[in-house]
Amino acid sequence: MGRILGHYILPHPPIIVPEVGMGNQHVAFRTSSSMKMIAKEISALNPDNIVVISPHGPNFIDGISIMDSYFIQGDFEEFGSELSMEKEINKKLVKELKYRCEETIIPLISIDHSNAELYNIEYKLDHGTMVPLYFIDKFMENYKLTSITYGGISKLHHYKFGMILKESLSNIPGDFVIISSGDLSHKLIEDSPYGYDSSGEKFDRDLIDNLAAGNWEDIIFMNDDLVTNACQCALKSIILLLGTLDEFDFKSDIISYEHPFGVGYCISRINIINNCESKYTKLERSFERRFLSMTKKESFQVNLAREAINNFIKYENYIDIPSNTPKELLWNKKGVFVSLKIEGNLRGCIGTLTPTCDTTCEEIIRNAIEACSHDPRFTPVYEEELSLLTISVDILDNPEICSKEDLDPQKYGIIVSTESKKAVLLPNLQGINTVEEQLSTVLKKAGISPNEEYSIERFEVKRYL
Fold first, then answer.
1. Which positions fall inside the AMMECR1 domain (predicted)?
2. Which is the most buried residue in 205, 431, 433, 439, by most CB within 10 A?
């Protein structure tokens, strides 16, 4: 029934919208011109429906979100413009997606006017959706919208959701265009609001080259540290889009690329080359191989934490102390932090500055289980995520009182405290390179003003991977 007429990757800099840029949009002239060209192309396809995958709608750590009222509005007020738009939501497609996701492990969170308040969010269009639609609306307006926001779940699950999206479209009457909205690295020049990192240039170059060549697997398995350091918001949008291309070989036309503000703007059209077998099984096996390779290299401490987590999530009980536990974990009592990540994104972290158990071994087991099940920032880890977890274990030395001059964010963790407030930050964290950044971050975490009187302690850790 439904047909997909086109797949596009588009950026979303508000400044290229004339009512926002107010004459400054020429700074991103190539992007603006290419957006107009693609908008004309889409209008010529004359779709009944447009699906936009955005980074900037309601973003959930544990799922993908979709807008689910009959109509939705949005505006550019936060960018200094009164420009607004209203769109009709394709409720049939939303209903089909919800039904299909209930049959899988993919969490799909539908947002409407009534539950938006419960989530403490506004039911409105985001700029990641509105910027591409602004240009399309210059040439056509009679279409329904499906507004999707990617989440904190794994790349594999985003790819699978893309497959579900394609299957759902086939059951809905009409013609569809799918847009992956996202900006590439935000760290391409020193003057960027996000600073400079050489990872940004490599990320953009590798992503563009792989898009052009249709190297879908290389896109999905881009290095997690590279992706994180590049500070981008496009990759998961693109991976979800790739899921809709699961049974096709493709290449991409790179229409334009520039980075006038230190942020990479890429405009690309996907061209289907031919049909192929589903890539999903191969993708699953690749994830499994990478997981097995990682676990073979893990330290005893990390393997202990992993076994504790696996056993607790599957059977809801604590493991016994293993017979091969190193003596130092049995004879010593130390504070321990256990950190969980999925593809570079934090999934849970719980720790103790001073020991609460009889042995360090038991401290690791306890905090591993707490990290996967009781970190208040996250929903509990579920069984399907176990093979996606990267785990680190930090064993702490005793803290010592110090001054700002004694700090080193690469070597020492930090504790700040007043009579009623306290916070801790581990050493050698991504994005924290200076004493000022470390101190500012931990004070904010504690809710302590820099002007208040507070004490500082530092501590060393031994990190196990």
1. 296-465
2. 439
Q: What is the CATH number of the domain that holds 418?
A: 3.30.1490.150
pLDDT tens column, 400-459: 999 999 999 999 999 999 999 999 999 998 779 899 999 999 999 999 999 999 999 999
SS3 159: helix
For residues 133 and 252, membership in a common domain is answered with yes
> Which single residue is written with the structure tokens 């588009």?
10
Domain shared by 408 and 449, yes or no? yes
Token readout for 239 is 């991976």
Distance, in Å, from the CA atom of 463 to the CA atom of 430, rounded to the nearest integer, reads: 14
In a shared domain, residues 429 and 363: no
- DSSP letter string, 26-64: GGGHHHHHHHHHHHHHHHHH--SEEEEEESSSS-BTTBE
pLDDT of residue 349: 96
Torsion angle in degrees (nearest 10) through CA of 5, 8, 13, 19: -20
What are residue 421's DSSP bridge partners?
Answer: none
Residues 391 and 412 in one domain: no
Distance set, CA 112 to CA 109, 119, 131, 146, 150 (Å):
10, 10, 22, 13, 17
Q: What are phi and psi of 77, to 5 degrees?
A: -60, -40
Amino acid making up residue 28: A
- Beta bridge partners, 345, equal 342
Tell the residue number behind the tokens 């050698």, with chain if given: 428
Element (H, E) at 18: helix 18-21
153-185 core/surface letters (b: 16 or more CB in 10 A; e: else): bbbbbbbbbbbbbbebbeebebbbbbbbbbbbb
**Structural domain range at position 184:** 3-283
Q: How much of the chain, in percent, has pLDDT values that exceed 70?
A: 100
Residue 27's pLDDT is: 86
The Cα–Cα gap between 27 and 32 comes to 9
